[in-house]
Amino acid sequence: MGVASNSHKAIHNLLTEIERIAEERGGAIRGIKKATGGNEESVFQGKFFKNTNSTREIDASFNLVAGTVFMYAELADQLITCSLTKRDRFVWPTR
Question: Cβ distance 42 to 36 under 8 Å?
């Protein structure tokens, strides 16, 4: 599963909530967050997430991947992506 946004702060807010719910329900996440090298604000300080500056570290061993849309552009050939429209309508991938 993946989380993407144009904003690291928006991603961090969602990841914080995901971690809170996982702890509340006794779940665990093996997540990875793509940070931007040299930008400390892009690093997520969470219990269940590893930070990386390289998409090469992202693989199937993680069950939640988070990063900006730029990260997803780098990984486009490896992912099947779905999205929600602004009106919360689910959109299936076209490939």
Answer: yes
Question: Is the separation of the CB atoms in 65 and 44 below 8 Å?
Answer: no
CA-CA distance, 38 to 36, in Å (whole number)?
A: 6
d(CA 8, CA 92): 25
Q: What's the pTM value of the predicted model, to 2 decimals?
A: 0.78
- Single-letter amino acid code for the residue at 87: R
d(CA 63, CA 7): 21
Dump pLDDT digits (tens) for 44-85.
Answer: 999 999 999 999 999 889 989 998 888 877 877 776 655 555
Q: Which residues of 50-69 are buried (b: 16+ CB within 10 A; e: fewer)?
A: ebbeebeebeeebebbbbbe
How far, in Å, CA of 3 to CA of 19, rounded? 13
**Beta strands in 17-75, from DSSP E residues, in sequence order:** 31-34, 49-52, 64-68
